[in-house]
């Protein structure tokens, strides 16, 4: 298991925060983190509807130890609070998900979504500007035509780099329920958006129509037993996608089979272990995230206490199950009281699909090496912020004698939770969102 | 008994959470509401099974009284907590709600406990006898309750009219009318702390409430 060190204690804090490190405004809480396909850019979305994009610095011979530092590249307000007048409901501006499109020209494109509306943003650089207009002066004011005696050709001159983000498409009014996932298809022409009961397929060019490909809303809402919790397209097969449910099941659908994919092609479910049955079994079995491996061979699911890896060719049980924080199993009642049992943790693969990572409480996050079967618990905290420090593995003491460096279950801070993490597509660089702070760690071997 | 108390505590807590989830930005979350209803169902099953296992702890039922475990003679008149089936409700603009509204009304009629005003007199003399009469509230009494109940709900528990409608108007009204009494038990409790009102006679019997609540939750 490689050790992760802090090469740079990069902690993101919005510039308008004047509170101390222990306080923050609700709007600053990071709600999604995503690397782009090359890993050059890292996007974060927050509860205030803002998107902040970081760009990795180019390597330089002069500052080898600062190689690969991520700096703020662009910040923009993606979504604003809205009001649904028909239902008298406020629509939160919180960014639920960001997904990058593969780069096809000099500009970058990403999708960002709140509960109801998906937007396609174009992020482009401008490092030249035209000068020498005839009808305008240098400040842009119109000149009196009678004062113009000569004509000149405007020329492009270099300027300070400016990064601008413009909304190119707005995909609205297609979801009755709250959007939980978006996923870009491998054809790069379509994407899907999923809410609690329906999944819609969009074409990037068309904003006033979408195809409904999954609809699990029962005719009688009293018979509702499960909702869709996450959905993702297969990384290579543009006809295949999966969606997870609140009952702990995963359905794989093939869009070639029918227009409405209500009947799944594959159904992944693990029989419940009777010894683990408890009062809150149904809640903790709800899947909060589903991710295809980069190879497309496996899917990973996260429920409240475990991460599971499934082989697409075997539906009756996962091939691997990892306990994230099993010591919480006896605390479910308290976690229900403080609402923590409803937390939706995400999970990520590393570039080679050999390591998986997910978050926990007390600003802990866990990594599991699938090959060596070793796991490690690390902490994202300011105390680990010394440059070139190595992150020390942490351990939770479940009972009996607590060793010196261990922390007991009752001392865990449940307000500090790591729900969102991201892994660079090819290198061992990880981004961990801890409430309103973003930590970026890199493997010291690199 | 412990199990019963714990189950009731969890049911009460769940009701509280359901009520407060209405107030949060973005409106009711379907997934969260479903999870809360699942917990309430499990708590109800646990409560009922614990009750069946410990019959000697139950109050002796009067002769002729219905053996239905859901029936409990209310110990105190609590008009705010009584049922007020949405008789005069306007049809909801949401297509899914128009389908559910008549069903919800049926459900309320089935599980409805005695109306407040008409039964106050009756209750003191009817502990031993007319349990069945309580199953069929008079229309007149229902209408009186419907007028009475909103005024008795404290100001702070009444959401602004715009918010009370929202995406799930039936559920909103059910919660507002039925559980304001329950929520009154512990007005100062933070949302995360379970209101401890099992000891107070003003609290509604769990079964009736839960039956309706579970259906109401799913019915939106």
Can you describe this structure?
- Chain B: This is Immediate early response gene 2 protein.
- The complex is a heterodimer of chains A (446) and B (220).
- By secondary structure, chain A is an all-beta fold.
- Chain A has helices at residues 281-284, 332-337; strands spanning 4-6, 30-35, 41-46, 50-56, 70-77, 82-84, 89-91, 97-100, 108-113, 118-131, 155-171, 181-184, 190-194, 198-203, 211-215, 228-233, 240-245, 250-254, 266-268, 289-292, 298-302, 306-311, 320-323, 347-349, 355-359, 364-369, 375-379, 389-390, 396-397, 407-408, 420-423, 429-434, 437-443.
- In chain A, strands 28-1-33-32-31 form a five-stranded antiparallel β-sheet, with no helix packed on it.
- Chain A starts with a strand and ends with a strand.
- Residues 1-22 of chain A have low confidence and may be disordered.
- Chain B is mainly alpha-helical.
- Chain B is 55% helix and 0% strand.
- Chain B contains eight helices and no strands.
- In chain B, helix 1 (2-21) packs antiparallel against helix 2, helix 1 crosses helix 7 and helix 3 packs antiparallel against helix 8.
- Classes of the chains: A mainly beta (446), B mainly alpha (220).
- Chains A and B meet through strand 7 and helix 2 of A and helix 1, helix 2, helix 3, helix 6 and helix 8 of B.
Categorize the overall geometry of chain A. Answer: globular
Stretches of chain B where pLDDT falls below 50 for ≥5 residues? 61-172, 181-207, 216-220
User: Largest beta sheet of chain A, briefly?
Assistant: 5 strands, antiparallel
> In percent, how helical is the residue content of chain A?
under 10%
User: Number of helix segments of chain A?
Assistant: 2
Major sheet of chain B: none
Most residues in contact, chain pair and counts: A-B, 36 and 35 residues
- Look at the structure and give the mean pLDDT of chain A: 89
Strand content of chain A: 35-45%
Please give the share of residues in helix of chain B.
Answer: 55-70%
Region (Disordered) (chain B): 59-165
Family (chain B): Belongs to the IER family.
Organism (chain B): Echinops telfairi (Lesser hedgehog tenrec)
Biased composition (Basic and acidic residues) (chain B): 67-78
């Amino acid at each position: 298991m490689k050790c992760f060190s802090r090469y740079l204690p990069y902690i993101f804090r919005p510039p308008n925060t004047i509170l101390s490190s222990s306080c923050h405004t609700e709007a600053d809480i990071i709600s999604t983190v995503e690397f782009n396909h090359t890993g050059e850019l890292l996007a974060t979305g927050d509860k205030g509807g803002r998107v902040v994009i970081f760009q990795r610095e180019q390597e330089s011979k002069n500052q080898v130890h600062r190689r690969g530092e991520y700096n703020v590249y662009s910040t923009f307000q993606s979504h604003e609070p809205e009001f649904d007048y028909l239902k008298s409901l406020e629509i939160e501006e919180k960014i639920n998900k960001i997904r990058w499109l593969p780069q096809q020209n000099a500009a970058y494109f990403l999708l960002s979504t709140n509960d109801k509306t998906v937007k396609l943003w174009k992020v482009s650089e401008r490092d030249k500007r035209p000068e020498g207009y005839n009808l305008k002066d240098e400040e842009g004011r119109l000149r009196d035509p009678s004062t113009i005696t000569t004509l000149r050709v405007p020329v492009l001159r270099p300027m300070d780099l400016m990064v601008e983000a413009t909304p190119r498409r707005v995909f609205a009014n297609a979801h009755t329920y709250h959007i939980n996932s978006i996923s870009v298809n491998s054809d790069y022409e379509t994407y899907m958006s999923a809410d609690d009961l329906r999944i819609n397929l969009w074409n990037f060019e068309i904003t006033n129509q979408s195809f409904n490909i999954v609809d699990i809303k029962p005719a009688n809402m009293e018979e509702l037993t499960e909702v869709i919790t996450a959905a993702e397209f297969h990384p290579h097969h543009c006809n295949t996608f999966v969606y997870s449910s609140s009952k702990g099941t995963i359905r794989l659908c093939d869009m070639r089979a029918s227009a409405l994919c209500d009947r799944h092609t594959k159904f992944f479910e693990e029989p419940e272990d009777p010894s683990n049955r408890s009062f809150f079994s149904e809640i903790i079995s709800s899947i909060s995230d589903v991710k295809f491996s980069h190879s497309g061979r496996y899917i990973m699911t996260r429920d409240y206490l475990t991460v599971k890896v499934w082989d697409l060719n075997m539906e009756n049980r996962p091939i691997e199950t990892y306990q994230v924080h099993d010591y919480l199993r006896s605390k479910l009642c308290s976690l229900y009281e403080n609402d923590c049992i409803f937390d939706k943790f995400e999970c990520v693969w590393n570039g080679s699909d050999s390591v998986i990572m997910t978050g926990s409480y007390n600003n802990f996050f866990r990594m599991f090496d699938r090959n060596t079967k070793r796991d490690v618990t690390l902490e994202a905290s300011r105390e680990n912020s010394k440059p070139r420090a190595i992150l020390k593995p942490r351990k939770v003491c479940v009972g009996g004698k607590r060793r010196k460096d261990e922390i007991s279950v009752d001392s865990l801070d449940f307000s500090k939770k790591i729900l969102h993490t991201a892994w660079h597509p090819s290198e061992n660089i990880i981004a961990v969102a801890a409430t309103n702070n973003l930590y970026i760690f890199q493997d010291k071997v690199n | 008994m412990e199990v019963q108390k714990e189950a009731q505590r969890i049911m009460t807590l769940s009701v509280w959470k359901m009520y407060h989830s209405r107030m949060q930005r973005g409106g009711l979350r379907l997934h969260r509401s479903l999870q809360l209803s699942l917990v309430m169902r499990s708590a109800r099953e646990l409560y009922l099974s614990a009750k069946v296992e410990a019959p000697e702890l139950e109050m002796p039922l009067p002769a002729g009284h219905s053996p239905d475990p859901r029936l409990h003679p209310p110990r105190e008149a609590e008009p705010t907590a009584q049922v007020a089936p949405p008789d005069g409700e306007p049809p909801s603009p949401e297509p899914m709600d128009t389908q559910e509204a008549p069903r919800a009304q049926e459900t309320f009629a089935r599980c409805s406990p005695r109306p407040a005003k008409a039964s106050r007199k009756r209750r003191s003399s009817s502990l031993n006898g007319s349990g069945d009469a309580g199953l069929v509230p008079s229309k007149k009494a229902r209408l009186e309750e419907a007028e009475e109940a909103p005024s008795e709900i404290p100001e702070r528990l009444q959401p602004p009219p715009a918010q009370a409608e929202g995406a799930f108007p039936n559920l909103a009204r059910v919660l507002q009318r039925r559980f304001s009494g329950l929520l009154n038990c512990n007005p100062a409790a933070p949302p995360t702390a379970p209101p401890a009102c099992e000891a107070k006679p003003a609290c509604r019997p769990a079964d009736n409430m839960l039956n309706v609540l579970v259906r109401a939750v799913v019915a939106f």
